[in-house]
Every structure is written in C-alpha cells, then in structure tokens.
UniProtKB/TrEMBL annotation:
GO terms for molecular function: AMP kinase activity; ATP binding. It is found in: Cytoplasm. It comes from the Bacteria. Residues 31-60 are annotated as: NMP. GO terms for biological process: AMP salvage. Belongs to the adenylate kinase family. GO terms for cellular component: cytoplasm. Consists of three domains, a large central CORE domain and two small peripheral domains, NMPbind and LID, which undergo movements during catalysis. The LID domain closes over the site of phosphoryl transfer upon ATP binding. Assembling and dissambling the active center during each catalytic cycle provides an effective means to prevent ATP hydrolysis. This is Adenylate kinase. It holds the Pfam family ADK.
Length: 190
C-alpha cells in the first residue's frame, strides 16, 4: 500500500495533480477541501463548524479535520493506497495521521511538496475565484491570510517529514504535464 501526502500552499496545484496521480497509481484521493465542502453542502454538524473557520480564511481546527478524514479512510478501507491532499497541515495533524495509519498497520510512504512563489499563487487563486464560486479565492487579503497560516503552521511539516526520510520537493510551476512528470519520477521510485 502506498500513502502519499501531497502538500503546498493554496493554489499550488495539489487538486489538479491529484486527479492525474489517483488514476495513474490507483489511489483514493482524499482532499480535505472536498471533504469540507461535502460536509458543508450537506449541512452536517462538522460541516457547519468547519464553515465558520473557512469563511474567515482560517484553517479548520485539527479535531474537526481529523474526524472528517478518519471517516473517509474508513469508508475506503479496501483502497490500494491514499493520496492525502491538504492534510496534514500541522505537526499535530501529522502525528494524528501517523497514529491513525499505524493503527491500520500502514504509514506515510512519501510526502511531496509542490513549491511555487506566493505572487504567482495569489494570481492563480484570484483567477480560480472568478469561476469557482469560492469566496476564499476571491479576496486577496483572505488568500494572503491563508499563506500566513501556511507559513506558521504547515511549513514546519517539511522538517517533520525530512526527519522521517520521506520528504520530496517538486517545482510546482510549469505546464501541468511537466509537473505531473516530476511527481511521477518520485513516485515510481518508491
């Protein structure tokens, strides 16, 4: 079983790349953003709670995120592996994911970070916001707040996963096919 954590700042291309990787490697794609939106759309208790944070451009607290994610993993117990997109975002979440996977006799196989310049990503998100309908992609101040949250809470994951020997950085700028190829070169060697 292969379990990949795909992370990077909002707009780095995680969702786009996950679409290619899930098919190529037969992985179950677990996007915290999609899981949040499903729970919000269906007005679940966790969804209502998550919405209050998302609407302010803040990260959803670990306890809420972890409950949603564990439920999705359980729903897909027969999967050949998981592609975690947008999770973990904090050291506490990474430790919770490790503990959860260990309870299933699994582990994170690789953590791959899509790296890109903030200014390029801000423009990507503002463009996406014109068609996505997502309020958090239409306000530059909220986007920059998300980056500040990322720098404070998510960037420390780089050292966490480097310490486990399973961290890889990939240039997230270029043609989608070029980025997919960069990711595949890493995954094929796992």
């Amino acid at each position: 079983m292969i379990n990949i954590v795909l992370f990077g700042k909002p707009g780095a291309g995680k969702g786009t790349q996950a679409e290619f990787l899930k098919g190529k490697y037969n992985l179950t794609h677990l996007s915290t953003g999609d899981i949040f939106r499903f729970n919000i759309k269906n007005d679940t208790e966790l969804g209502k709670l998550a919405k209050t944070f998302i609407d302010n451009g803040d990260l959803v607290p670990d306890s809420v995120t972890i409950q949603m994610l564990e439920a999705e993993v359980e729903k897909n117990a027969d999967s050949k592996g998981f592609l975690f997109d947008g999770f973990p975002r904090t050291i506490a979440q990474a430790e919770a994911l490790d503990a959860f996977l260990n309870s299933k006799n699994q582990k994170v196989t690789a953590t791959i970070a899509l790296e890109a310049d903030d200014e390029i990503l801000v423009q990507r998100l503002l463009e996406r916001g014109k068609t996505s309908g997502r309020a958090d992609d239409q306000d530059e101040e909220k986007i920059r707040n998300r980056y500040q949250e990322y720098n404070e809470k998510t960037a420390p994951l780089i050292e966490y996963y480097k310490g486990q020997g399973n961290f890889y950085a990939v240039n997230g700028i270029g043609l989608i096919s070029e980025i997919t190829e960069r990711l595949s070169l890493i995954i094929d060697k796992l």
